[in-house]
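USER: Study each token:
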Amino acid sequence: MSGGPAASLRLPEAVAELYSASTLAELVDLRRTLHADPELSLQEERTSARLQRTLDELGVDSVTRVAGTGVVGRIPGRDRKAPLVAVRGDIDALPIQEDTGLPFASRNEGVMHACGHDVHASWAVAAARLLQAEPAAGDVLLVLQPAEESGEGAAAVLATGVLDEVGAIFGAHVDLTFEVGQAMIQPGAVGAAADRFEVELRGKGAHGARPHQGLDPITGLAQVVSVLQTVVSRRVPPDQPAVVTVGAVEAGTAHNVIPGRAVLKGTMRSLDPAIRKLLADEVRHVAESVGAACRLEAEVRMLQGTPAVLNDERAAGWARDAAVPVIGADAIRPLPAANMGGEDFAFYLEQIPGCFIRVGARLPGDPVVGAHTPYFAPAEEAIFVGGALLAAAARRASAELAGTS
């Protein structure tokens, strides 16, 4: 490589050998273009247009829009009659003001690729290029999915029927817990069910100087928040990961007025369906019981979100075996702790055997920075590792499903 942003990339040797200098530069440029122009869920019009144009220029078959702002394309395999495999990348951004200082930082006020979906879209394109150069046994469907952050995109893609014939599906996420060249590939739960709750407490407004004339929903809200902290510590078995977090409270308009209502909003995270139900039941019980003790009327709204991300055992095995020649067995790491983040790839896994991979995106010596923050900046090397892992997994699954392995 000579010059350009791709010249300084630090890639595992087996990964570097897969890409020409011009391909490296093109994919870095694609990622930076997407990063500089992020769009929120179901508003990804410019993002989709750029990705559709890119796939058309690559000669990918049957490139079309789905689910509003999604894009799909088909990479021919050696046998067009063999079972279909899918590779998914998500494309939407978050309502966060970027503060990375990158020269290609977001130009859009209050919108940022703070979860790495610009990288995910780019490595899906990288996987397409690798699958064109070395086709799988059967066709591979490339899915560039909108609206992951709102939890709507995967279900919308499934509803179109475009995945009805898919025998296995693979996706991935950047992870700054791991260094570039490392990946988490394992069966079972690798992401949490992410549900929401809202509690409205209704009392009776009064002057702040005469609280005895009202029924104060703020003091009730404070007690509900406090007691909710016991749901996980006292109701969930210690060996079961679970989270109940109150993230927003809304009450009052003035310092000397007791309002008539107060609202709290939060999230529940779980890996097991039984624990998922228990959390919802306990949150409702706490809110209604504490509200009643404070002589308040409590209305509880449960908003079910994405289910837990449960990797299929066979698909995870195919992905792991395929990854060994790419990054080496020692670079395949277990999750260091239960991942309580949500991910709508879970909807695919409810219907299609598949595997969701965590791809290292931190250079050695760099700090671990959390997603959904203004400072989130995954290493660009992850584009090429992720693309290589997804392409290899698709080939292995295709061979297994076609009976040619």
Q: What stands out?
A: The first strand starts at residue 61 and ends at 66. DSSP finds ten helices and 16 strands in the chain. The longest helix spans residues 381-402.
